[in-house]
Amino acid sequence: MRWRLSVLEAIILLVMARLLISAAMLRRWRGTLGRPVGQANRATATQADRTLARSIERAAQRLPGTSKCLPRAVALHWMLRRRGRPSQLVIAALPEQDRGTIDDLHAWTEIGDEILIGALAAPFRPVVRFG
Question: Which one of 9, 13, 57, 109 has the fewest beta carbons within 10 angstroms of its own beta carbon?
Fold first, then answer.
């Protein structure tokens, strides 16, 4: 039952994130992400945090259309913040010499050194962190 409620919450937040991202500029809703911070925190992710990340992935599978990295990262960040967890949403870009495709930007949610959602092998460099 708890898992289903978590996935339902993830669906609702993922839909909200997709709508906000498509309808409004980041400056209008960035306050929902917390303050910009300069560096990664020193916290450690728990199994409950990882379970929330899996609920976001499950919700994304159940929704029609595509949920790219930013709505997934935003939805998870919101879920973790609601629970008082010290997550950070990171928006990053590829180094200048590697740019040139539609995927030059990327977003993920992390706690400490662990990326809970959005891990990629590409060398993205953080542009801004919200914590």
Answer: 57
